[in-house]
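User: Fold this; tokens only.

Assistant: Input:
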Amino acid sequence: MWNLYELLRVETNCQTIVAIVSESLSYRLRQSFRLMCLLYKLNLDLKLISVSNVICEQSYDQYVRSLSERLMDQNVDSSDISADNFETLIDTSIALSLLTTRPSIVIARVEPYLNEATFIQYNCGRLKAIIDRYDREYVANGVDAARDLSLLTHDLEWTLVLHNLSKYRSIIAASDDINATFSQLVLFLKEFVRDVSVYYKKVKILTEPSAHLRG
């Protein structure tokens, strides 16, 4: 792993990079993220990358172009998306492809990570809207009332609390453990945003007058 870091740092003209990470081994999340950034954001002509069972036959620029084409296929003009949001969408797609638990994946225009990345980012936007409203109506006004869990009356609210939020600390702690697998964090994120999406559609938390956590 560290030899690969040095190779990427020194040999900037190399044409082919093969990075193989055994499924039976685990590395710290910080190291994996650093590797991912190096592989895709250095100015290299990448012909082949193999990380675990993930194979990429595109350079970073080619990946960006194919992502733009995918958006156009869905009648979305990439120029209408801010540069920061577009880069976040790309990074999320790459992260999902590198940390996937599927047995064999080829990163190409036909793969589904754009849809998954869009779904995750979309629901992160929903969560941010909820948190922003909470900060605006309670925190900014100096309201410090105790949280009342009895106000959580919808089954989906308890699903989020018990199945997702209560796991968050242990999942994050495990993801930084050398004996843990990255897939735990990815699976947690996918399940969490799925539950957030279902909850957001059924419980109009931003428009209903009723309180959901404070009286």
